[in-house]
Amino acid sequence: MKPDYGPDDLMVIAAFRYCCGRQTYIVSECVDWLIKNWSTFSERARIVIKRDLETEFEADDRARASGSNYKPLGWDCDRQEWEKLRSHIKKIG
After folding, report:
1. pLDDT by residue (tens digit) across 58-81?
2. Which of 81, 57, 84, 82 is nearest to 71 (CA)?
3. Going by C-beta distance under 8 Å and a sequence separation of 6 or more, which residues neighbour residue 23?
4. Cα-only R_g, the chain
């Protein structure tokens, strides 16, 4: 039986969006949870997360290139965690 993540997996998207840009242990916890449960999420939720994650990487790349103190994906260690999710998504489609 598929877990209940709310209508259209709203809570999956909400958790992902909440954790983007955070600079605490929650980033690695969220990434690990997303990877572990990726196949249980609706196609819509996966599309939204893929799109939003790429948008965050683009913004983070621009911020880092400009020398901004604000980094949309957090510190280097946080960005590395998001890269794990990004790689997982690219690998499995």
Report:
1. 999 999 999 999 999 999 999 999
2. 57
3. 74, 75, 78
4. 13
